[in-house]
C-alpha cells in the first residue's frame, strides 16, 4: 500500500500500548504508518517514551505533538476538573495534528483513539478518511452507542442496581456504569455523552476484540441495533491486539521464581498501571492470600489515601517499605510460597507462564485480553472507568471469571479474597472456568490465523482504505501478512 496512515493517540499506557500494537500490525502489511501522540497529560518523560517506542518498533514512525493547552496563561488551574482539562487539551492539539499531517506525503486516513474523537474535525478539514480505534471491547461499544439515544426518565445514579438493557449486551446494573454517568448532569457528564455521540461519525470503528468473545454485541452493532433508525459506522473486530512490552531489559526476577512452581499453581494479582488501593486494603489482601494456602505473585503499587495527592506515593522498591505496608511478618511467613514485587511485573509474560493458574484483575480491557489470550481465568475486582462494565461482561457474558464481592464497597475483606482464590483454584466451578479459558485462548489464536475472523476484518479494513477489494493472490498475501 503506497498511501500512509496516521494513528493518533495520547500519552496514557492503556491507550498508547494497543495503538502501537495496531501500528505494528499495519506496518507488517507494508502500510506506511505513523503514530502521532498528543503530549497529554504532558510529562517530562514523554520524549523518552517516544524514543523507546521508536527503537522497539523500527518499522513504525512516531511523532510527539507539542503540548497544547486550552487554558489562557501558562499556569494550570489547580481546581480544574482533570477530565474536562484532558478533553480540552486534546481538542487544543488539533492544530498541531493538522500541521503535522499536512507535512506528510500521501496520507490516506486517520485512525483516532476514542478519546481523541475531537480530531474527527481535523480529518474533515484535511479531507481524509477517519476511523476510530476503540481500545475496549464490543460490549461497552454497543452500550456507549446506545446511551445517547436512551430515555431512562431518571438519572442513572438514582437507579441503583436496576438492570439496564443495551442491544446485544448482558443486562448491566446501573451502578456498574462508569462513575461519570452516575453523577449529576454536569460538564463531566456532558463531555462523556459527547464522546459517545462521536462514535456515530467515523467511516468505521476498529475494536480490540474478536467475534467469538462477544458475538451478541458484534451482531447488534453490525445490524445497527444500538441506534435504531440511524447509521452506525462499520465495525472491524481486529483483536486481540496483545503484545509483550518491548525494550524492558532482561528476564524479570518473578519469571525465574515462576519457573520453579508447578503448572497452574500460582495466583497472580495485579491492578494495572494506574490503580492503587488503600493500605488497609493491602493488609486485607495479604491476610486472604496467606489463609488461602495457595502460591501467589502480587504486584503491589504504593497506596494513597482517598483524598491524597496521587503523585505522592511511598517508595515500595525496598523490602522494608513493603513490610511496613503489609501485616507484620507476612513476607517471612509466606516466603517461598509467595512473591511480592514492587509496582510492576511483566504482565503478559506472567500470564503466559505455565505456572500461572488465576488472575486477580481490575478488569481493564488490556488486562482482560491478556488473560484471555493466555487462557487464565479471572477474579474480577473493578476499580474505575469502564471496569465495572467489563466485570459484567467477563463474568456473565463470557463466563471467564468470577466477581470479587465487595468491589463496590470501601474494603474487600480477607475472607472474600481467600474464598475467591480457593474457588478458582480448587472447586469444580474453577475447573470449568479453566476449561472455558483454555477454549477462549484457542479461539483468540484462531481469530488471528489465516482465515480467522479478525484477520478477515483487518483485510476488510485495508480494503476500505483503498476503496476496492484486494484481488486473488494479493488478498491471500494480505491475509498471510496480517496473521503474523
From TrEMBL:
Q: What Gene3D superfamilies has UniProt attached to this entry?
A: Glycogen Phosphorylase B (3.40.50.2000)
Please state what the protein is called. Answer: Glycosyltransferase
Per the record, the similarity remark reads:
Belongs to the UDP-glycosyltransferase family.
Q: Which PROSITE patterns match?
A: UDPGT
Output the InterPro entries linked to this UniProt entry: UDP-glycosyltransf_plant, UDP_glucos_trans, UDP_glycos_trans_CS
Query: Where does the source fall among the domains of life?
Result: Eukaryota
Annotated signal sequence is none
**Entry keyword annotation includes Glycosyltransferase:** yes
The record's listing under Pfam families reads: UDPGT (PF00201)
Q: What class of enzyme is it?
A: transferase
Per the UniProt record, the source organism is Urochloa decumbens
Molecular function (GO) terms for this protein are: UDP-glucosyltransferase activity
Question: Which UniProt keywords are present, listed alphabetically?
Answer: Glycosyltransferase, Transferase
- State the CDD domains in the record: GT1_Gtf-like
Q: Which PANTHER family match?
A: GLYCOSYLTRANSFERASE
Which EC number applies?
2.4.1.-
Amino acid at each position: 500500500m503506497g498511501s500512509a496512515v496516521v494513528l493518533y493517540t495520547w500519552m496514557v499506557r492503556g491507550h498508547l500500548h494497543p495503538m502501537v500494537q495496531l501500528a505494528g500490525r499495519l506496518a507488517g502489511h507494508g502500510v506506511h504508518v505513523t503514530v502521532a501522540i498528543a503530549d497529554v497529560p504532558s510529562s517530562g518523560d514523554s520524549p523518552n517514551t517516544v524514543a523507546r517506542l521508536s527503537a522497539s518498533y523500527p518499522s513504525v514512525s512516531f511523532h510527539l505533538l507539542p503540548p497544547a493547552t486550552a487554558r489562557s496563561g501558562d499556569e494550570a488551574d489547580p481546581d480544574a476538573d482533570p477530565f474536562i482539562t484532558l478533553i480540552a487539551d486534546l481538542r487544543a492539539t488539533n492544530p498541531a495534528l493538522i500541521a503535522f499531517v499536512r507535512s506528510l506525503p500521501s496520507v490516506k486516513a486517520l485512525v483516532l483513539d476514542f478519546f481523541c474523537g475531537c480530531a474527527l474535525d481535523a480529518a474533515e478539514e484535511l479531507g481524509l478518511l477517519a476511523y476510530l480505534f476503540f481500545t475496549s471491547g464490543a460490549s461497552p461499544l454497543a452500550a456507549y452507542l446506545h446511551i445517547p439515544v436512551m430515555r431512562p426518565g431518571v438519572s442513572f445514579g438514582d437507579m441503583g442496581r436496576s438492570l439496564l438493557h443495551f442491544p446485544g449486551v448482558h443486562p448491566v446494573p446501573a451502578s456498574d456504569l462508569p462513575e461519570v454517568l452516575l453523577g449529576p448532569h454536569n460538564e463531566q457528564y456532558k463531555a462523556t455523552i459527547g464522546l459517545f455521540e462521536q462514535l456515530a461519525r467515523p467511516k468505521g470503528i476498529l475494536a480490540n476484540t474478536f467475534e467469538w468473545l462477544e458475538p451478541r454485541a458484534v451482531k447488534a452493532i453490525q445490524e445497527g441495533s444500538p441506534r435504531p433508525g440511524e447509521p452506525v459506522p462499520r465495525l472491524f473486530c481486529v483483536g486481540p491486539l496483545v503484545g509483550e512490552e518491548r525494550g524492558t531489559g532482561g528476564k524479570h526476577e518473578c519469571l525465574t521464581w515462576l519457573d520453579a512452581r508447578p503448572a497452574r499453581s500460582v495466583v497472580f494479582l495485579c491492578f494495572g498501571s494506574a490503580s492503587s488501593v488503600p493500605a488497609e486494603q493491602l493488609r486485607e489482601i495479604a491476610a486472604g492470600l496467606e489463609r488461602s494456602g495457595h502460591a501467589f505473585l502480587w504486584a503491589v503499587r504504593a497506596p494513597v489515601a482517598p483524598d491524597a495527592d496521587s503523585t505522592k506515593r511511598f517508595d515500595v522498591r525496598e523490602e522494608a517499605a513493603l513490610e511496613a505496608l503489609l501485616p507484620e511478618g507476612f513476607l517471612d511467613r509466606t516466603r517461598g510460597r509467595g512473591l511480592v514485587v514492587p509496582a510492576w511485573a511483566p504482565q503478559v509474560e506472567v500470564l503466559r507462564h505455565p505456572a500461572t493458574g488465576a488472575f486477580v484483575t481490575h478488569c481493564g480491557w488490556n488486562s482482560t485480553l491478556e488473560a484471555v489470550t493466555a487462557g487464565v481465568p479471572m477474579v474480577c475486582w473493578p476499580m474505575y472507568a469502564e471496569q465495572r462494565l467489563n466485570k459484567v461482561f467477563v463474568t456473565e457474558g463470557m463466563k471467564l471469571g468470577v466477581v470479587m464481592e465487595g468491589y463496590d464497597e470501601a474494603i474487600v475483606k480477607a475472607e472474600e479474597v481467600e474464598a475467591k482464590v480457593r474457588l478458582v483454584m480448587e472447586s469444580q466451578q474453577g475447573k470449568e472456568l479453566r476449561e472455558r479459558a483454555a477454549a477462549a485462548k484457542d479461539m483468540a489464536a484462531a481469530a488471528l490465523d489465516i482465515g480467522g475472523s479478525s484477520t478477515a476484518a483487518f483485510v476488510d479494513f485495508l480494503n476500505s482504505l483503498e476503496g476496492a477489494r484486494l484481488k486473488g493472490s494479493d488478498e491471500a498475501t494480505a491475509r498471510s501478512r496480517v496473521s503474523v
